[in-house]
Design a protein that fits this description.
Layout (H helix, E strand, L loop, with lengths): L2 E4 L6 H9 L6 E6 L15 E5 L5 H11 L4 E4 L5 H6 L1 H22 L7 E8 L22 H18 L3 E8 L1 E2 L12 H11 L4 E3 L7 E5 L1 H12 L12 E3 L3 E4 H12 L7 E3 L3 H8 L8 H5 L8 H13 L1
Parallel strand pairs: 1-2, 1-4, 2-3, 4-5, 5-6, 6-10, 7-9, 8-12
Antiparallel strand pairs: 9-11
Helix pairs in contact: 1-7, 4-5, 6-8, 8-11
Amino acid sequence: MPKILITGASGMIGPLLAARLLQEPQYQVILTDIIEPSIPPTAKYPQNATTIKADLCDPSSLQNLISTSLPLDAICIFHGIMSFGSESNFELGMKVNLNSTMNILELLRNLKKEGEKPLRVLYASSQAVYGQPLPEIIDETTLPTPEGSYGTQKLICEALINDYTRRSFIDGYSLRFPTIVVRGGKPSQAASSFLSGMIREPLNGEECVIPLKDRSFRSWLCSPKTLGENLVHALNLEPGALPSHKRVINMPGIGVTVQEMMDALVKVAGEDKLKYLKEETNEGIERILRSWGTEFDNKLAYDLGFQRDVSFEQAVRDYMESVKK
């Protein structure tokens, strides 16, 4: 039974992957976060999940977590301080996004025995590693020049994942996620949080503030459902799927404007939902948003077997269906 440790298990991506894995009997999942994580309520095999409260920024807590979890088949490093939060609090972003990840990698390096198969590591990176000026279409050969602390921290960790994989300390892949929409729960500290809020909040009869007055503004998006399938696929990639020193993948997404998102909301839930959307410029957030890319060539991901969403409208319908469960 494959045994997988997921950090950031009280966030969004961690529970998403856990819920998907626990639909099948063969996975054993360990969920960890700074607060006691919950086993996803939709899990078909909740008995295969264990939760551990741990502070990954505390060396003794991290050491205890890894020691308790071993032996493992994979670690998914999904914890972090989001884009706007990292920009607002530099020290916290460095501590959580960079230092704790470095400590995890060092622990894995020191624990690996001679001749032992390297542990599969999935690292949650982001399209925020890119900054302007950007070509019209971005791919993995585009030079990352992040314009925010969050993207910088992610880029440093990508380089470490590559080097630790090249040295056979781990078998890692850095996955640059598009913005995940529609997320459940409450708004996060991500600059892109409003993109989920534009759908989620009106459906709940609540207001969402769009932090820029430009309905042609385009974002690169992926639904939780598609991401879940792609994460399982990433866990099962062959070790030699990519060269050991080039382990970065831009995950598939679709480009959607603010207006197209509004249109999908109207089509799925009715025009009256638009009254809950308020457009109000936030210069700090808008600066971050406009530094990101809006069109990606995902050929590498497709060649490796990853999937993309059919449409944003379908992503909205999938979210509404998930809320009913």
